[in-house]
Automatic annotation (TrEMBL):
Pfam families: TusA. This is Sulfurtransferase-like selenium metabolism protein YedF. It comes from Geobacter benzoatilyticus. The lineage of its organism: Bacteria, Pseudomonadati, Thermodesulfobacteriota, Desulfuromonadia, Geobacterales. Belongs to the sulfur carrier protein TusA family. Residues 2-68 form the UPF0033 domain. InterPro entries: DsrEFH-like, Se_metab_YedF, TusA-like, TusA-like_sf.
Length: 196
């Protein structure tokens, strides 16, 4: 079993290193040493979303994640994104819409997100980065709308580094935490990207 040490690595290095190790492992198990918090969550989510099984144990103040291919055969290779996947991704980079007045920008963003509920066609995924993550956390006026969008199949993801920067990771209400690797993969693999 290959063991890789991703401790003390900044996002998205643990995920990228894990991805490479899984590709090189040819279906054999890989153990990844990670710090607690976002690295542990991001690597686990990455592996599970690609069909792997993750077993974790505490190790030297962090965690050891043993990643194996699902199924008894244990020879499933890592999946990679190839070409466009037909999805529409919305990148929300601010809690304001447009330039100029921040007060007006916040009102416009609120109205935009609420208006999405009246559309027949919705984005497949909404990625919240920078101050956009403030829309997915406690105190946001669009939490109910984002929850309804999630119930209608829209995947709502907030950048973990951004949540940490604004000290609001524990206040996340709508959707889940993601990392820069997933954000980049989503944007590059999407059929269309809408940037707000």
């Amino acid at each position: 079993m290959k063991i890789i040490d991703c401790r003390n690595m900044a996002c998205p290095a643990p995920v990228v290193t894990t991805k490479r190790a899984l590709e090189e492992a040819g279906g054999e198990a890989v153990q990844v040493l990670v710090d607690s918090g976002a690295p542990r969550e991001n690597v686990t989510r990455f592996a599970v979303n690609r069909g792997f099984t993750v077993a974790e144990s505490e190790s030297d103040g962090g965690f050891a994640l043993t990643i194996t291919a699902s199924g008894a055969a244990g020879n499933e290779p890592a999946r990679t994104v190839t070409g466009r996947d037909g999805k529409t991704v919305m990148l929300v980079g601010s809690n304001c819409l447009g330039d100029g007045s921040d007060e007006l920008g916040r009102l416009l963003m609120k109205n935009f997100i609420i208006t999405l509920l009246d559309l027949a066609e919705l984005p497949d995924r909404m990625l919240f980065i920078n101050s956009g993550v403030l829309l997915t956390t406690e105190g946001s006026e669009v939490l109910e709308a984002l929850e309804q969008l999630g119930n209608r199949g829209v995947e709502v993801l907030s950048c973990g580094v951004c949540l940490d920067f604004f000290h609001c990771k524990e206040k996340l209400v709508a959707g889940s935490v993601t990392n820069m690797f997933t954000i980049a993969e989503s944007l590059v693999g999407a059929e269309s990207v809408i940037r707000l």
